[in-house]
Write a structure and sequence with these properties.
single chain; alpha/beta; Rossmann fold; Helicase, Ruva Protein, domain 3; five-stranded parallel beta sheet; 20 helices; 18 strands
């Protein structure tokens, strides 16, 4: 039974509507003012609100605005004896669903309620379907319907239950910590701690103490015993982000922990047992780092028992609309904005942009656009210049904040190949000549970069 709250300062109007609506199967409560209505709604939110526009104190339109700001999902219909188009428009802008003029006919009120019920039913069904689709296109906090991300989801689900180390590889901003979190949440360790540390963000002199702990007096500022992150994660999962930044001497100690299942804090004389699953992540290619002598080969093989490779956003563009919808919804909830979507021009620009900063950059752009948007739709004017204006590859990468030379090289190479293919209308032989590489090399790179 749908619940309706009638708000009107005239007692006879409240009585007429209560009698009418109860007769037609609605559960009805009444309030003599907007202030009384708000107090009622705090305790028991209705499905629908029918409110007079002009009342002493807070008006019906102000009530609509207040309900909206509080996140009350009740559908609102307003009434007024002053039946002007301007009032109707103002009520709709405030968030009302429909408008009924006083004096009203009973059928008008019932029709407005029936329409509102149909609309609410469709909204709930759409929300249910969106949730169902999202559940099929998500894993933990990760979203993706592309075949590349679906492969990542299947891999994570498959390896989560095995108590072994996992190496997560992907560019900056692709969501490596989200993969680590999903591995933890889907594992038998999910009720125990998940501890994350960025190995590149801690000064080298402090990193050993952070990871393994220290005893009082172990060094100048060690005024008391301190547990390391391995002990903090005991029974759970330790996520070592940017593992490629780990100094060689600490790589030796990490290998020992993985092999022996014990840690020795700085200044201690005995080992302590720890039960930790390690998930490591890096933007570097550790196999190349091993060849260059910057990463221990034995540690690499000990870590790389199971590997998860996260594709960059430019290689899974079909996921961008899904991510846009998710980030708009998330920022609406966090910032109190009411952005409904993105217009066609802005969407086209967002789909065409190469996203060197990946999903993290996309989220930042959406947050900026949600804040700057003048209306309830994001337009091209709300986007950063680097997205609106065609720019050379170097400028795109630099403005995204990326500093990786390796990523810059790959990004520029991919951009040049895409331009050559566009110029030759997809003729690979002609494109290879323009690029001054062999046809075979071009075919390999097209596959490597996910170009069509």
């Amino acid at each position: 039974m749908a619940r309706v709250l009638v708000v009107d300062d005239e007692e006879n109007i409240r009585l007429v509507l209560r009698t009418l609506l109860k007769k037609h199967g609605y559960e009805v409560t009444t309030a003599a003012s907007a202030e009384e209505a708000l107090a009622t709604i705090e305790d028991d939110p209705p499905d629908f609100v029918i409110a007079d526009v002009r009342m002493p104190g807070m008006s019906g339109i102000d009530l609509v605005r207040e309900l909206s700001s509080r996140g009350v999902e009740a559908v609102t219909i307003v009434m007024s004896a002053y039946g002007s188009v301007e009032l109707a428009i103002e009520a709709m802008k405030a968030g009302a669903y429909d408008y009924v003029s006083k004096p009203f006919k009973q059928d008008e009120v019932l029709l407005a309620l029936r329409k509102a019920e149909e609309r609410e039913s469709l909204r709930r069904e759409n929300a249910r379907l969106r949730k169902q689709v999202r559940e099929q296109q998500s894993l933990g906090a990760m979203l993706g319907k592309s075949s590349a991300m679906q492969r990542v989801f299947r891999t994570v689900e498959k390896v989560a239950g095995y108590d072994t180390t996992v190496l997560v590889q992907g560019e900056s901003g692709t969501g490596k910590e989200l993969v680590a979190r999903a591995l933890h949440d889907l594992s038998p360790r999910s009720a125990r701690p998940f501890v994350a540390v960025n190995c590149g963000a801690i000064p080298e002199a402090l990193l050993e103490s952070e990871l393994f702990g220290h005893k009082r007096g172990a060094f100048t500022d060690a005024h008391s015993d301190k547990k390391g992150l391995f002990e903090a994660a005991d029974g759970g999962t330790l996520f070592l982000d940017e593992l490629g930044e780990l100094p060689l001497q600490l790589q030796v100690k990490l290998l020992r922990v993985l092999q022996e299942g014990t840690v020795r804090p700085l200044g201690a004389t005995a080992d302590r047992p720890v039960d930790v699953r390690v998930v490591a992540a890096t933007v570097r290619n550790l196999a190349d780092e091993v060849k260059e002598g910057r990463f221990r080969e034995d540690l690499y093989y000990r870590l790389n028992v199971l590997q998860v490779d996260i594709p960059p956003l430019r290689e899974r563009r079909e996921d961008i609309p899904l991510l846009l919808e998710h980030f708009i919804e998330a920022h609406n909830g966090r910032l109190g904005t009411r952005i409904r979507g993105i217009d066609a021009k802005a969407r086209k620009l967002l789909l065409a942009y190469p996203w060197p900063g990946n999903v993290r950059e996309l989220e930042n752009v959406v947050e900026r656009a949600v804040v700057l948007a003048e209306g309830d739709v994001v337009t091209a004017d709300d986007l950063p210049d680097r997205i609106k204006e065609p720019a050379d590859p170097a400028r795109v990468v630099l403005e995204s904040g990326e500093l990786s030379i390796k990523k810059m090289q790959r990004f520029m190479e991919r951009t040049l190949i895409a331009r050559a293919l566009e110029k030759t209308q997809g003729n690979r032989t002609a494109a290879a000549k323009l690029l001054e590489i062999s046809n075979r090399a071009l075919l390999y790179k097209i596959k490597d970069y996910g170009l069509r």
